[in-house]
Structure formats: C-alpha cells, structure tokens
Amino acid sequence: MTAAVGPRTWLRRFHTTPDPATRPVQLVCLPHAGGAAGYFVPLSAELCEVADVLAVQYPGRQDRWHEPAVDDLHELSRQVVAALEPALDDRPVVLFGHSMGALVAYEAARLLNPARLYVSGCPAPSRGVESEQEITDDQGILDDLRALDGTDAELLSDPALLELILPALRADYRAVRTYSWRAGPEPSCPLTVLTGDRDPRTPADAVMEWKRHGTKDIRFHAYEGGHFYLTEHTRQVAELIAADLA
Length: 246
Known about the structure:
Largest sheet: 8 strands, mixed
Oligomer: single chain
Strand content: 15-25%
Structural class: alpha/beta
Helix content: 25-40%
Number of strands: 8
C-alpha cells in the first residue's frame, strides 16, 4: 500500500510502516527525468526490511499532474529539501538519485549533509548531461526516451497519455539542459557512483569526474546494461546498499 508522507505529498512510502529499531536509516530515492516515485517500488521491496525507504514524487506527474512542474534543477532541489526536512527524524539519511535524480540528490546533499549519497546513471555535475544539451523540442524528447529504452513504447505513442506527461517531460529536460554547477562546499559523506556499462549518458571520463564532488570514500560500480540498468539489477544494487547500511 502506498502512503503519502510529509507536506504537499512529496514523499511516498511503498512498504511497511517503519520500526526505527529495525529500520535505523531513512533512504530517500529521487527519480529520473520524466520519472515518478513508483520507479523505486522494486528497490523499496528489496530494502524495506533494513531501511525506511521513501521515494520523491516531483510535481507535475501522476497524482501531482495538476501542479506545475519545476524546470530549474537548483529550485527543484531546494523544494525537495524543504519537503524532506519535516519528514526526517533522528535516524541517518541516505540519498539515492538516478539520472536527473542524481543531480537533485547531489544538490540536496550539499544542503542536508546526509550519511551517504548514491548517484546513478549520471555524469559528474561539473560536466553536465552533455547528450541532453541540444534536446529542445517534443520530438527530440520522445526520440531520446526511445533511445534510452526506459519508457513503455506504447506510452510514447498514445496521444492522450502524451498530453498528460509531456509538460513534466519538457520541464525536466529543460531543468537538465539549463543546469549549471555552482562552486561551493561538496557533500562530506561517502559517495557511491553507479553506472551501466553501455549507458550512452555516462562516458567513463564524465563519470570519473565525480571525484571532484566528494571529500572522502568515493567508490565506483558498473553494472551490465544501459541507462536503466537499475531495472535489471535492482537486487544487486540493493545488496550493495544493504551492506553499506549494515
């Protein structure tokens, strides 16, 4: 059963009411461009016995479709932090972001000082997502989604559904396209960088540049697959996170 958590329904909990004694960590997951909190249901299922797993639902999609999407990534990160703060307690907080969500998680970590930060499927912030720089129209967005093979093909060819999802997609792609890294304090927590070994979004040099954005204990893990490798390797990623939390 899905439960909304926190103000303005930014957060979703998909599994089990947490017992702080058995789930001593709050794990907050942030989805990719065009993605929704539900993307993390499988990861939540794997980790719900060891962590209180929360997924962020950005405005402008699914049950928040009537709210305007945020097309500035720095502003989106600030709004995520503002929504998180009342929902957090004394337990350590861990952030996990995929693709655009990795940038949001990184910027949120600069404000929140979490216990750990996981960034997935994303070049270093100082590099930006170069492959999205020239995607400025709807056709370009749809072509890009098809190429990444992470969105149901039927969804992308249904005019009625596209009318609902395109506003959020436009805002997300604009947020990534216009994102500019700003110099300042970096997250002081351990940083783990996860990628798919055939992901066109994450060339090796752009991934290794994450070394600029951590201050200690920076690790890199590559999994077989493309941009949405996480779909096929949820259990392996969950095992990695569970070992860290333990």
